Amino acid sequence: MENCYSNLLHDEGKGVLSLILSLIGLNITTSSEQLRDFLKGTLLFVQQTQLCVGRSLWDVVTQCVDLLKEKELITVTSDPQGQRLQVTKLGRATYKGSVDLTYSDLLYRDLCRGLEGLLLNSYLHLVYLVTPYDMISQVKPDWMIYFRQFTLLSAAEQKMSAAVGVPESFVARKAAGQTVKNSVTMAVVSRMYLALVLFSLLKETNLWSVADRFQLSRGFIQTLLSSSSAFCSCVLHFTEELEELWPFKALLKELTRRLSYCVKAELIPLMEVAGVMESRAKQLYNAGYKTLTHLANADPALLSRTVENLYKKQADQIVASAKMLVNEKAAALQEEVDELLMTPLDLPQL
Questions:
Q1: Alpha-carbon distance 2 to 46, whole Å?
Q2: Cβ pair 209, 142 in contact under 8 A
Q3: What domains lie within the chain, and their CATH numbers?
Q4: 239 HSE (CA, 13 A, CB side)
Q5: 284 C-beta neighbours (distance < 10 Å), count
Q6: What residues contact 79, with CB distance under 8 A and at least 6 apart?
Q7: What is the sign of the dihedral through the CA atoms of 41, 46, 50 and 56?
Q8: Would you state the pLDDT for residue 238?
Q9: Residue 229 and residue 89: Cα distance in Å, rounded?
Q10: Which residues pair with 77 in a beta bridge?
Q11: What pLDDT sits at residue 150?
Q12: 332, exposed or middle or buried, with CB in 10 Å at 0-12, 13-18, 19+?
């Protein structure tokens, strides 16, 4: 039988750090003593002599609390009962968004800086902000490709790139093979390169052609797309907890959907239907079924005859699924209407 070990201390203790932040944020524990008592019920406590080499589990708890305090994710105050641990707004956003603690402060700074000159006539700026930090080290930019793609950007997009730290002059010199000595951070440069890959995917949605253009494997681009979609959802929940980042709430909802489906915007509603993938959504759209309402009211027999390689049974399932989605959306809207028309219970009376 294989041995089973706790992963809480894996990757420099990210697991136990996230666990402690969540416990404090959910008010399950409010003191270091309660944290220690909770951890006594974990596999890590049973295996502490093997995994906590040279230190006790109490030392691990103390170090984690100090680190979370240093990152301003929690506050430590004193009261008559001892120390009291409370989560900060940033800490709550971090655990509710499932954001890696390594990048939470960096993400917050990037989002705040992004608000100062957010580009709204293009997805590029938003895509850059949700490009995963942990993917940066996995790519080495091809400078000629970088420069060619950079020159295809609009003036506003190039200005945005310069604002985050990647000016055209830097990319041009690197493409020419020149040594560039300035303050440009390679992590930012690589992140923008990945953002250009994602930006191309959103515009074309053809993974094969994008992989060929950037000379990257299709597997890597698929991983990048999946990671970006997941991270975009995390950033969305992160911003929902921070009032100062309110503009991102509406903007990232649509981008999350675009990255999840990676198709043209008009196809997304059709792909919400069970069993409808990109190719089928294109067929339906071209056949005139452009919305959920079209599909919900379609005749399955006519649908199967109109759309190539669509059997009657599949058409029945698509129409039934579309009807269910339409009914769910209508019910949600009806609830809002009922709530608006309802007389408030606390209405002042004579």
A1: 17
A2: no
A3: 11-87 (1.10.10.10), 103-264 (1.10.3380), 273-339 (1.10.150.20)
A4: 24
A5: 26
A6: none
A7: positive
A8: 95
A9: 24
A10: 84
A11: 94
A12: exposed
Q: How far is CA 235 from the centre of its chain?
A: 5
Angle at alpha carbon of residue 197, lines to 259 and 159, rounded to 5°: 100
- Higher-confidence position of 193 and 300: 193
Contact yes or no for 290/266 (Cβ under 8 A)? yes
Q: Note whether 225 and 211 are within 8 A (CB).
A: no
pLDDT, mean over the chain: 87
Six token digits for residue 14: 């990210």
At 70-113, the pLDDT tens digits run: 999 999 888 777 778 899 999 999 999 999 998 999 999 999 99
One-letter amino acid of 162: A
* 3-class DSSP state of 119: coil
What span, in angstroms and rounded, lies between the C-alpha atoms of 143 and 171?
7
The predicted-structure confidence for 11-70, as pLDDT tens digits, reads as follows: 777 888 899 999 999 989 888 888 888 888 888 888 887 777 667 778 888 888 899 999
What confidence tens digit (pLDDT) does each residue in 31-40 have?
A: 888 888 888 8
Task: State what percent of residues in the chain have pLDDT above 90.
Answer: 37
Distances from the Cα of 287 to the Cα of 70, 153, 233, 315, angstroms: 58, 34, 32, 13
pLDDT of residue 99: 92
- Both tokens assigned to 294: 């079209």
Q: Which two tokens stand for residue 67?
A: 């680190």
